[in-house]
Every structure is written in structure tokens, then in C-alpha cells.
Amino acid sequence: MLLVLGLLGGFALPAVAEAMRPWLPYMVAFLVFVSALRIGAQEALGKLSDARANLGRVLALQLGLPLGVIATLWALGALSSPFAVGALLALAAPSISGSPAFTALMGHDPAPAMRLLILGTALLPLTVIPLFALMPAFGGLTAVIWAALKLTAVILLAASAAFWLRARAFPRPGAETTQALDGLAALTLAVIVIGLMSAVGPALRSDPAALLPWLALVFALNFGMQLLARALGADVATSVVAGNRNVALFLVALPAEIITPLLLFIGCYQIPMYLTPLVMKPLYART
Fold first, then answer.
1. CA gap 194, 9 in Å, rounded
2. C-alpha distances in angstroms, 202 versus 4, 12, 83, 218?
3. Residue 207 half-sphere exposure, CB side, CA atoms within 13 Å?
4. Which of 82, 122, 177, 241 has its CA 20 to 30 A from that of 220?
5. Residue 49 contacts by C-beta under 8 Å, 6 or more apart in sequence?
6. How far is residue 241's CA from residue 61's CA, in Å, rounded to a whole number?
């Protein structure tokens, strides 16, 4: 319910949403810190066999999938459509920073999602190279690589600080502590989404009909990818990551003519993203 209230707050309080935008990087870092504090270093790092499997998952999601979509859209002559650009950027992006928290809120182990988040973000400088080579209109590759490296550093620093604190303060947290951390993560997510909705609230009031195609795209993309991954036998963490990607990373590199509609796409993308723990929980609860 907190996440839904955050979405509504983003719609209803555009001035607050705009004022919060500069603070989003710090709030995302805090969310990673809280998620890592809940998980612990041993669970987050996993085993060597997990690393090999996760590498395959990341390459399939961030490289194989967008390349397949590029080939399909090229064959259909739809590669330059704004909707195609938005979908491709989302599919090429790594996991959102909130994926471990989402997984925990649905009653599942957040550690696998944390591993995919760290590995996917770290590999982004490599996985985006073929995409930008095939889509030169996307702009500068160097800026995307630099943004990915900065985000990787933030995630690693926040997670390392959390692992250090947990090892000394509560190496074996009880159920009450775990629930408190889950609640703090949910509250942080609800605050973050207010700032992320800064482009959607004004558009909803000025031209709500213009939002409908973008809303249809983001719901189909987010929930559709989660359902597809689950149908193909993916675990909960991989399914959540499949539909929830950090597309905002690409804003630093794209030319102005692509950024403007993409801001609306990113804002709309938050809606199914933040509804994931509520809408998708029954699906993931069946296994």
C-alpha cells in the first residue's frame, strides 16, 4: 500500500516531485544500503556456481533479448519508432536498484535479485556496446559507460557499508529485525517514486490521452516480461528483474530529441514497476 501511496503522491504533488529529483541518487543509494543490510554479505555474494548461472541470465536479459528485438523491429521497419526506442532501452538496461526490496516484499529471498543487480550493472558497459553500434541515433556510448561505472561504484559502496554494519551489529537478525528492514525499504521506495513521477503528473493534467499509448507499452513490457520469464521457468528474482529495468541510466547519453519523450516513458514505467509487489505477488506465491 505504501508504494501505491507513493505513486499517487507523485501524481498529486508535482512541485514536491520536482523538488525531490536532485535527491534521487542519494535515496537510491540508501535503498541499496537497506536491502544489503537485510540480506548480508554471505547471501548476497552466493556461490561460484551461482555466479556462472547469473552471468548467463544477465547476458540473456541485457544482450540477447534486446538484440533479438532489434532484429525483429528492423524486419518490420519499426526500428525508429519512439515506442521501439523506449522498449529497446528498457530491455538493454540492468535491474532497478529496488529489485531486492521488491522480491522481499513479495515474501521471497532478495539475495538472488541483489546478485543480478550488482552483476548486471557491472556488465552494462560491455553489454550496451552492440546495441549502441546498431543504433547510432542513441548517442554517445562513453557517457553510458561512465554512468554505469558510477552506479556500480555507488552500489558496491552502499552494499559494503551495509555488510560491514550487519556483521558487527546483528550478524543473525531475527524475524522482527527483518520485518523492520522490509518496512524501511518499502517506505524508501514510496518516497523515491514521488520524485520519479515528476514528468507524469503534469502530462496527466495537460494531455491525459497522450499518456495512454505509453502506459499500454510500459504495462505490456513490464508485466509481460515478468510473465514470459516465469512461463519459461525463471526463478522469482530473474522474473522480477526481467520486467523492472533501470532505463534512467541512459538519460545521460541520449540526444535531446530522444530524451523528451523518454522522460515520459520513464515516468510511466514507474507505475507497473511500483505495482509489481502488489499485482505480481499472487503469481509468485504459487511457487
1. 6
2. 18, 9, 20, 18
3. 6
4. 122
5. none
6. 9
Q: Which three cell numbers stand for residue 268?
A: 510511466
Smallest CA-to-CA distance from 128 within 117, 142, 116 is with 142
- Residue 201 contacts residue 12 (beta carbons within 8 Å): yes
Does pLDDT of 13 surpass 90? Answer: no
Give the integer Cα–Cα distance in Å for 119 and 100. 13
Q: Report the topology of domain 2-285.
A: Na+/H+ antiporter like fold (1.20.1530)
Choose from 125-129, 149-153, 189-193 the range with maximum mean pLDDT. Answer: 125-129
List the grid coordinates of 120. Answer: 548486471
Q: Would you state the pLDDT for residue 277? A: 92
CB-based contacts of 105: which residues, under 8 Å, 6+ apart?
182, 185, 186, 277, 281
Q: For position 59, what pLDDT does the model report? A: 97
Alpha carbon 48 to its chain centroid, in Å, reads 25
For residue 1, pLDDT over 80 is answered with: no
Q: What share of the chain is helix, strand, coil (3-state, %, to 5)?
A: 85, 0, 15
Query: Cell digits for 232?
Result: 519459461
Residues forming beta bridges with residue 245, ordered by sequence position: 95
Q: What is the pLDDT of residues 208-258, one digit of tens each?
A: 787 888 899 999 999 999 999 999 999 999 999 999 998 877 765 666 666
Q: Where are the domains of the chain?
A: 2-285
Using the 8-state DSSP alphabet, how is residue 23 labeled?
A: G
Give this prediction's pTM: 0.84
> How many whole angstroms separate alpha carbon 11 and alpha carbon 216?
18
